[in-house]
Amino acid sequence: MEHEQGWYERLENYFPDHELKSPEQMKELFRQHPAYRCEQTDEYLIIYADFENFIFIDYLLVNPKTRGSGIGTRVIDSFKRRGKTLIAEVEPADKEDRDTEKRIRFYLKNGFHRAQNIAYTRESADGSPYSMDIYYWSPSSTSEREILEQMEVVCEQIHNYHAHRHYGRLPADPDEVLQWKK
User: Fold this and answer.
1) 3-class SS of residue 174
2) Is the Cβ–Cβ distance between 158 and 29 less than 8 Å?
3) What is the DSSP letter of 66?
4) Could you give the CA distance from residue 166 to residue 144 in angstroms, rounded to a whole number?
5) Within a domain: residue 42?
6) Is residue 1 assigned to a domain?
7) CATH number of the CATH domain containing 29
8) Distance of alpha carbon 111 from alpha carbon 127, whole angstroms
9) Residue 2 included in any domain
10) Which stretches does DSSP call E strand in the chain?
11) CA dihedral defined by 32, 63, 154, 80, rounded to 10 degrees?
12) Where in the sequence is the domain holding 105, given as residue range(s)?
């Protein structure tokens, strides 16, 4: 990963600041966490955590010049062939940001479901709350309780990885950011 250049700049140019991890934290994850990985081509960038029973898609970015040509679907299909549940955090639809609706349509078109029973609210560095929806795809029957448990693992092992050193706080304490709605 270290030899590939430009991956963080690509993320910065597309994702809102509050959704980005620090580049230092991400570099540590790549070097030290056995599940955290990156695939980068001119067409796409995907950063994910490949756990034993599921894959968490941390960031997926298709080159703006090639969006709509099926590249994102091919990437998702390659992950589906691994036979594990796929989980992604997706911004809720915002009428003032058309990209949010496009991302939701992308995941729905690719067979993902929005977790109806999981509320997921985090705080940005300045303490402002923001909500994300959890979308998932599974090759077999998976309950939203299982998705919630897997998201707890994501929060503990990925979002909070050496977080006190990088942020001076836990950005995603699962007991605080994840709630079961029913």
Assistant:
1) helix
2) yes
3) G
4) 31
5) yes
6) no
7) 3.40.630.30
8) 34
9) no
10) 36-40, 44-50, 54-62, 85-90, 113-114, 118-123, 129-137, 178-180
11) -100
12) 7-180
The model's pTM is: 0.94
Domain-located, residue 33: yes
Output the six-digit token pair for 135: 């979308």
Q: Widest CA span of the chain, in angstroms?
A: 46
The string of pLDDT tens digits covering residues 18-45 is 899 999 999 999 999 999 999 999 999 9
Query: How many other C-beta atoms lie within 10 A of the C-beta of residue 53?
Result: 11
Structure-token pair, residue 98: 């058309």
SS3 49: strand
Provide the token pair at 150: 């897997």
Summarised one tens digit per residue, pLDDT across range 88-126 is 999 998 888 777 888 899 999 999 999 999 999 998 888
Which residue in 65, 86, 48, 53 sits closest to 13, CA to CA?
Answer: 65
Domain count, the chain: 1
Q: Which amino acid is at 82?
A: R
What pLDDT score was predicted for residue 66?
81
Amino acid letter, residue 119: A
